[in-house]
Design brief:
2 domains; alpha/beta; 5 strands; 136 residues; three-stranded parallel sheet; Rossmann fold; two-stranded antiparallel ribbon
Length: 136
């Protein structure tokens, strides 16, 4: 079974769901490291519909919480990355791609299969001699 890891891309702020600090113990219990990527900047923002139906938008600040993401990665034996732009994010993914993975190890089983086959042949010969008093 390949090793499991979690890669979390976030601004670090929990708005819905499990708070970041509550996710640490389950990850530790499962032995799954969490690699976190803080995506954005300290003065980042998003434009959202203001809800009036007029098509107007409002600017909502979304600063990155690097402390929470860094703590999550550290506590779960993962690694913390920062990406302020999509270019930075591409570099992070390249680094993750080269460090997270597993090797497939091929094992030769011909001798084992041959051994089992010869053993079954010998067993069938013994049983044939016992039952029919002749070899198969």
């Amino acid at each position: 079974r390949p090793p499991a890891v979690i890669v979390l891309l976030s601004d670090g702020m929990t708005t819905v769901g499990t708070p970041t600090e509550d996710a640490i113990q389950p990850a530790l219990d499962a032995g799954v490291p969490v690699y976190t990527i803080a995506f954005g900047t300290a003065d980042g923002y998003v434009e959202v519909d203001d809800g009036t139906g007029t098509g107007n938008t409002e600017i909502v600040p979304v600063p990155v919480d690097t402390d929470a993401l860094g703590n999550l990665a550290e506590q779960t034996h993962g690694q913390f990355f920062e990406a302020a732009s999509t270019k930075d994010l591409t570099k992070v993914y390249e680094e993750l791609g080269s460090s997270i993975g597993y090797d497939i190890e091929r094992v030769e089983i011909t001798a084992k299969v041959l051994g089992w086959g010869l053993g079954l042949l010998a067993l069938s010969s013994v049983l044939s001699l016992w039952w029919y008093q002749r070899l198969p």
